[in-house]
Amino acid sequence: MSSSHPFQANHRLRQERIRQNWRQREVAELLGTTVVTVTRWEQGTHQPSTYFRVKLCTLFGKSAEELGFITDLEPCPHNVTEITPGASMEAPALSPDSSRLWSVPYTRNPGFIGREKILSTLHTRLAASEPVTLTQASALSGLGGIGKTQVAMEYAYRYALQYKAVFWLAAETTESFMTSLQYLAGQLQLPQHPAAEPAQMVAAIQLWLATHSNWLLIGDNVEDGDLLQTILPPVHHGAILLTTRRQTLGPLAEPVELPPMNCEEGVTLLLRRARLLNRPTTDAAMLQETLTNNPSSPAAAELVKLLEGLPLALDQAGAYIDETGCSVADYLQRCRNQRKQVLARRGNHGGAHPASVTTTLMLSVGQVEQKHPAAGELLRICAFLHPEAIPEDLLVAGTSRLGPVLEPVVADPYQFDLALAALRKVSLVTRHTQARTLSVHRLVQAIVHESMSEQEQEMWQQRAIQLLNAIFPEVTHEAWKQCEHLLPHVLTCAAAISEQVCDQELAQVLRKAGDYLSQRAQYEQAESLFQRALRMQEHLLGPEHPEVARTLSSLALLSSERGKDEQAGALYERTLRIWERTLGPEHPEVACALNGLATLQKDQGKYELAGSLYARALRIWEQALGPEHPEVARALNGLAILQKDQGKYELASSLYARALQIRERALGPDHPKVAIILNSLAEMYRERGDYEKAEPLYQRALHIKKQALGPEHPDVAYPLNNLAEIYREQGKYKLAESLSQHTLRIWEQALGPEHQLVAYPLNNLAEISHAQGKDEQAESLFKQVLQIREQHLMSTHPDTAMTLNSLATLYREQGKYEQAEPLYQRALRIREQVLGREHPKTRETRERLRAILETIQNRG
Fold first, then answer.
1. Please, which contacts does 35-41 make with residues 24 or more away whose CB atoms are closer than 8 Å?
2. What is the pLDDT of residues 657-669, one digit of tens each?
3. Distance between CA 273 and CA 111 in Å, rounded?
4. What is the pLDDT of residues 685-710, one digit of tens each?
């Protein structure tokens, strides 16, 4: 700009720059101008425009007078008659017939994208014709870099024709605010300007706002709501739009939280800024097609996810890609591997936000740490947890692990509220009141990480681990909800720590998290945690420590669930040896290993050995815990199944009754462990042909398991499969087939198509096909079942005999006696060996074999 009076060198501006230890280039980058321009300002050959004066006052935190600017600000044209939506311009077009006023200091952003719902909401709230009270003003709130100023700018340009005046106030500091008011007073040509005292100037502006209508006042970067209240009349006929990092401004304005960009918005912004979007368009369908066909879109979507839709970060990424010519995929890799350097580099920008992501967020972090040290420490512990759904109870219950500064603050609800208020003031943390959780943007976490020394990172990481280990419970069904809330935070901590690090508390919490995942049938992830915990424990404690045995026991149960019986047996044997040696042969933990081994032996058809192991576990639990303890019912249920499988139904019935009574009394009638016994008891009735007693027990077990575990949990498939068998035996083939298919789908998805449990629904489907005369399909299914059972079970297992018997019967009915005979022979040997010569199933096979042999002999 030019002036009629001579300029002098601006020594104050230069001194302030030197005091900040900034070079002219750094000031130029922060302001969005050139080094030449900054040099001219300091030399006095040119004066900064009003826009740059406001920016300089904000940058240095000084008033215009303190920076040596001439306070007689020259008005510039502000009349406006026409603005075309979507146009890019410094200000609206001019017309001598109009009296509109305009003071938005930024050029309209031609790359503005999205935010349509937010703009529509603002328009609805701010376009009312009735007198507006202060409580009806709107405030765009959110994290630094979320795009608040950009949305306010777009609103001003898009709806300029609906207002007679649009005023922009830089409200971040008192100095920048007063500079803006000086400019506003000059623009309004108030009588008191420019010689008036600040109080007179404020009063004059307040009077103008009270006596004029249909104006829009935008307060940008409001930190202190009291500043604006000094100029706002009690009742006015204008609209107020504020931008602020604070999540609330009290009665001053109704908040409108600005969320991160969604994937499509973020990809569009990134590709436009990087000049990789060939056909910019506002048509939704055409835009979607353009994005779909753009080869950079997949990597861009990954980058949007990584940066969590923060517009400043996406604009910064686009600028980097545009300047360097690297691909989006290259930038994504750099962002993952060199995060600190990438986030700190702003690159070319449009002037509205010259600071980088790092600078922007660190300003907020530094402000909090300076004013409220405990709030800064609260942000640090949150930086090492999962960014979403951080339970407040986790922090409150673990105060003793938080260190001397944060511990007393979190322990005091009032002080805890104040610490969160300090973080919410700059939108670093979001508090979800109903859920009692906190959330933090991932980039905030990244910046906080990078701001700490290696020693500080290790300290806060260790505190997070200790906190989680103290709160994460030993897993029971009742604790599932708590485990579910804590699991993401355990996994986040674990992922950030090198596999080479050995830490006892980390090992403990990983084992507990693995137990929860195992109970939820997430077996692969559980095994990974168990193996990592075991490596640490063996290194720190030695291979014979009880904690090592506890993890081995968890691994053994997991292996058993996945059908890896040989591996499970070896793990249980090692667990048993450690516990007997360290805890004594009568310790309850020893009984856990004995019960696990007994179940494996039972499943392999080794009934005598299984019975002795169950009996020993039962005796230990009864003596150590009492005859009514729920653990006692585990051994009783195992013994009952043994007796049932051997046809000793009366003894099995009494054992089931006692086990059921214990668990219902101790756990309640709707506990999933009660459903286990209900299912086993129903199975006994089904085998005896008493369907009227079996079916309601299966239904009750199914209902309990669905409610407690979810409809797709592998344990739900047990009563489903057994109900299918009842309906098949009753001739209800359509219903039986539907339930068998459902069972098959659950077990195949959870356990894999080769798991031994998959054989049960396949066998049922084979029997249904056989009953319906679909012999070819039945034969194929029986062979598939036999293959699975021969692969996983002992050669003498009763289930293998059952399949051999069924396939032989199919061949007999087809007249294929030579194929049926060896199958009956093999089935008979197994049943005689395992069930005894007089068991009903043994007698059945013997009779069928004799009939086959007679037929073959007669034919010969």
1. 41/10, 41/13
2. 999 999 999 999 9
3. 7
4. 998 999 999 999 999 999 999 999 99
